[in-house]
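Tokens for chain A. Residues wanted.
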């Protein structure tokens, strides 16, 4: 085997047009040998052609050419199909593992904390079996007031949720124009100057699009694109993040690799100097990416003085990966509207956007013959955030139990590139989420507020988790494992990240559930119960996904209160 040949993609022998002919294109299958090859040699064809008339010769040659053409088309189609199957097979090269030990799941909490001047980052242990099996890592960033998370990029797709606060989020897309621009009068006293060829001119600032983020926003981060975050609010800006190392865009390994463009991170690759790889305790020292270059080369590359080149490397910077902005950060960006009626105007804009998406879908259905490339937006103008905290956007709502809001690639197209999606859930006191499982993804549940009792059942009917889930804890629910969540006395609020851009969930109780869809006789014979019991099993719960406390549960709570 050649060194460039993958064991999953061996060298293919491509037949020539004279080796194989489709029997369906032959006038008689009896004229073919056992292997389907053409039985007559070219010499035989020439001898036969000399014995027939000119018209017959023309027809014979024409038939032979058509036969060769159809054979070539068939072979080309087979090669194209083979290439497509190989690409599909290699779509997620890091996702599949030889074995996932999931017999005993447990609650996950941050394993280390990385301090910085204006905040800190908490990191969950990426060597945890459940996280490794899901091909994911989990982090939590706390950015204090006026804090700036330094520009960086990663090898993996990332999806963030804003737990609290508000701020600015900037991302630099390769090749996109600097569409946000100010003149010199906007930043009085701070405009830049340029002196070249004896000409002195003043200019403002130009940069790529900056977005406002606030509590409840889901923010998508494309692998390899640099981003930064600034806290412009009065309280801490808190974000949780799933880093999906099994995304097909990641051509490296399953280690989290943060490439900082500024500063001198002190404590590991995710904002520090200690870098622990999966399955290794090795510690490596390093800072931002420019520290790997010579001062002279940087000076020439940016055409700047040596002092500035050394500052870019940041070797003497001790502020960490989140720095404090001493003065107000002056950035060109539209201001979010506030005041009376702002929320109603925002909802109306969202509804208009949804109507535009529906009209676009109708146009595509009406012109099904036109091929679509799947990109609803250009790279430079695509939406990277969506708020899932608005109760009016809930996909499932029960006034006595709570609500669940989902976000997938249909509502935020960039998620198809990240191969991730999300859901936000709110349960009232003692409410229950129907037993369900994800058909095509894992789920990573992060608790925002309150607590809940959670049970998970595995493939052999064993209980792999039965415990309490509380604030700032993470629990991984593997694909096809059945989970039930019941809120505690304080209610339960969570956000879940799913490892598919269009995660599909199947309920086992309530309306539109698997049990509801089975015939009564199947239930009777499967469980050995009466027909009346089968009807109770199917129809006693008329709610969908989010269940209010049952009368039995309420009676049990009253007995417990009386006993206390």
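Reply:
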């Amino acid at each position: 085997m050649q060194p460039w040949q993958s064991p999953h993609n061996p060298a293919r022998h491509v037949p020539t047009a004279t080796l194989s002919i489709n029997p369906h294109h032959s006038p008689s299958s009896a004229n073919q040998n056992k292997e389907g090859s053409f039985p007559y040699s070219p010499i035989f064809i020439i001898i036969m052609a000399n014995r027939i008339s000119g018209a017959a010769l023309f027809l014979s040659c024409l038939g032979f050419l058509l036969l060769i053409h159809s054979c070539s088309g068939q072979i080309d189609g087979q090669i194209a199909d083979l290439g497509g199957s190989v690409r599909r097979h290699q779509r997620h090269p890091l996702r599949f593992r030889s074995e996932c030990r999931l017999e005993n799941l447990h609650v996950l909490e941050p394993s280390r904390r990385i301090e910085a001047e204006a905040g800190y980052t908490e990191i969950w242990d990426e060597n945890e079996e459940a996280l490794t099996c899901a091909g994911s890592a989990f982090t939590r960033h706390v950015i204090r007031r006026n804090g700036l998370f330094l520009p960086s990029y990663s090898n993996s797709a990332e999806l963030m949720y804003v737990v609290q606060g508000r701020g600015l989020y900037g991302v630099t897309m390769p090749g996109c124009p600097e569409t946000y621009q100010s003149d010199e009068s906007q930043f009085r006293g701070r405009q830049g100057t340029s002196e070249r060829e004896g000409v002195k001119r003043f200019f403002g600032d130009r940069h790529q699009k900056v977005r406002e983020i606030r509590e409840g926003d889901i923010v998508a981060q494309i692998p390899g694109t640099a981003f930064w975050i600034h806290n412009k609010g009065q309280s801490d800006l808190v974000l949780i993040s799933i880093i999906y190392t099994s995304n097909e865009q990641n051509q490296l390994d399953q280690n989290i690799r943060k490439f900082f463009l500024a500063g001198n991170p002190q404590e590991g690759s995710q904002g520090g100097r200690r870098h622990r790889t999966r399955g290794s305790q090795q510690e490596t020292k390093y800072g931002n990416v420019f520290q790997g270059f010579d001062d002279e080369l940087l000076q020439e590359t940016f055409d700047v003085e040596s002092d500035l080149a050394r500052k870019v490397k940041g070797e003497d910077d001790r502020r960490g990966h989140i720095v404090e902005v001493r003065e107000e950060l002056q950035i060109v960006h539209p201001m979010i509207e506030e005041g009376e009626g702002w929320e109603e105007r925002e909802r109306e804009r969202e509804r208009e956007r949804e109507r535009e998406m529906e009209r676009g879908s109708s146009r595509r259905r009406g012109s099904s013959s036109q091929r679509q490339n799947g990109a609803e937006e250009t790279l430079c103008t695509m939406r990277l955030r969506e708020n899932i905290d608005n109760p009016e956007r809930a996909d499932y709502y029960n006034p006595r139990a709570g609500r669940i809001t989902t976000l997938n690639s249909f509502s935020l197209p960039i998620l198809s590139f990240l191969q991730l999606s999300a859901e936000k859930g709110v349960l009232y006191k003692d409410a229950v989420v129907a037993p369900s499982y994800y058909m095509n993804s894992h789920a990573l549940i992060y608790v925002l507020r309150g607590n809940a009792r959670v049970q998970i059942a595995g493939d052999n009917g064993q209980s792999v988790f039965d415990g309490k889930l509380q604030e700032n804890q993470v629990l991984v629910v593997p694909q096809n494992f059945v989970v039930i969540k019941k809120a505690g006395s304080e209610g339960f609020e969570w956000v879940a990240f799913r490892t598919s851009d269009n995660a599909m969930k199947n309920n086992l109780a309530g309306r539109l559930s698997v049990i509801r869809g089975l015939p009564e006789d199947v239930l009777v014979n499967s469980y050995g119960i009466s027909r009346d019991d089968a009807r109770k099993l199917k129809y006693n719960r008329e709610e969908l996904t989010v269940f209010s406390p049952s009368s039995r549960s309420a009676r049990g709570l009253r007995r417990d209160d009386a006993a206390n």
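The chain has eleven helices and 27 strands. The mean pLDDT is 75.
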